Amino acid sequence: MSLINPLNNQPLGGQSQTSTQSAAPSKQATSATVQAAATQQTSTTGNPFLDAIRLPEEKSIPEASSQGLSQEDFFSLLSQQLSMQDPFKPVDNDQMIAQMAAFSTVDGISKLNDEIINLNAVMTSSQALQASGLVGQKVLIPSDTGYLSEEDSVLKGVVSTPEAIETIVVRIEDDKGQLITTFNIDGSQGGNIDVSWDGLDNKGEPMPSGIYSIKASGRIDGQSEDLVVSTYAHVTSVSLGTASTGSILNLRGIGGIKLGDVLAVSEV
């Protein structure tokens, strides 16, 4: 006679068999759970607060291999070459010395390039420091264009003549090329002759702020020729630039110019 479980109306003997069959998967599941917990324990502490403030685990990233040939690599290759050479045809001493000399030359050139780069950086910084002293002053630039403003109501420049000219005709033009006024200056001394415009047109009316050009001409050997004109500009700031360009002087109303292109410095 078999006993019946009053809860599920199943024989107790059958229940024992079923429990035995389900015990094995339960043990396997328990083992997997323990392994997962052990694995999780390696990355967490079980405390949410401590896990939140833990530093993230660093992943090892392999460093990129250098493509350059170092001195250690060269001597390693040289040692391999000596060990693998034919005993009956050894490497010539002159050839070995030439290889070592060539490597030393290449290594020296590489170090020299690094030193030159560092020297250029130092020279650029020094040049920028010197150029900063020009802020607020005026510089003579190789251009016949100047800027007239309320702060600088007089436009000044220099006319260069190849020889003495009795009379130099000066023309003032606006940024559109329209003639504003004309006047004459004495060029009998020749060379570099100062010229200035008071900012008034041919009717004596003051002109507005803007860009204007100074044109000059004179008679040389009986013919009228245009003369080279340079103008003064106000330096407002200095840009550091690069090793190739150098420091850049920012001029009021005109733009920038390289420090090496400045012809003269003046306080006028």
Automatic annotation (TrEMBL):
<dbReference type="Pfam" id="PF03963">
    <property type="entry name" value="FlgD"/>
</dbReference>
<comment type="similarity">
    <text>Belongs to the FlgD family.</text>
</comment>
<feature type="domain" description="FlgD/Vpr Ig-like">
    <location>
        <begin position="153"/>
        <end position="218"/>
    </location>
</feature>
<dbReference type="Pfam" id="PF13861">
    <property type="entry name" value="FLgD_tudor"/>
</dbReference>
<dbReference type="Pfam" id="PF13860">
    <property type="entry name" value="FlgD_ig"/>
</dbReference>
<dbReference type="InterPro" id="IPR005648">
    <property type="entry name" value="FlgD"/>
</dbReference>
<feature type="domain" description="FlgD Tudor-like">
    <location>
        <begin position="126"/>
        <end position="262"/>
    </location>
</feature>
<feature type="compositionally biased region" description="Polar residues">
    <location>
        <begin position="1"/>
        <end position="14"/>
    </location>
</feature>
<keyword id="KW-0969">Cilium</keyword>
<dbReference type="InterPro" id="IPR025963">
    <property type="entry name" value="FLgD_Tudor"/>
</dbReference>
<comment type="function">
    <text>Required for flagellar hook formation. May act as a scaffolding protein.</text>
</comment>
<keyword id="KW-0966">Cell projection</keyword>
<protein>
    <recommendedName>
        <fullName>Basal-body rod modification protein FlgD</fullName>
    </recommendedName>
</protein>
<dbReference type="InterPro" id="IPR025965">
    <property type="entry name" value="FlgD/Vpr_Ig-like"/>
</dbReference>
<keyword id="KW-0282">Flagellum</keyword>
<keyword id="KW-1005">Bacterial flagellum biogenesis</keyword>
<dbReference type="GO" id="GO:0044781">
    <property type="term" value="P:bacterial-type flagellum organization"/>
</dbReference>
<feature type="compositionally biased region" description="Low complexity">
    <location>
        <begin position="15"/>
        <end position="45"/>
    </location>
</feature>
<feature type="region of interest" description="Disordered">
    <location>
        <begin position="1"/>
        <end position="49"/>
    </location>
</feature>
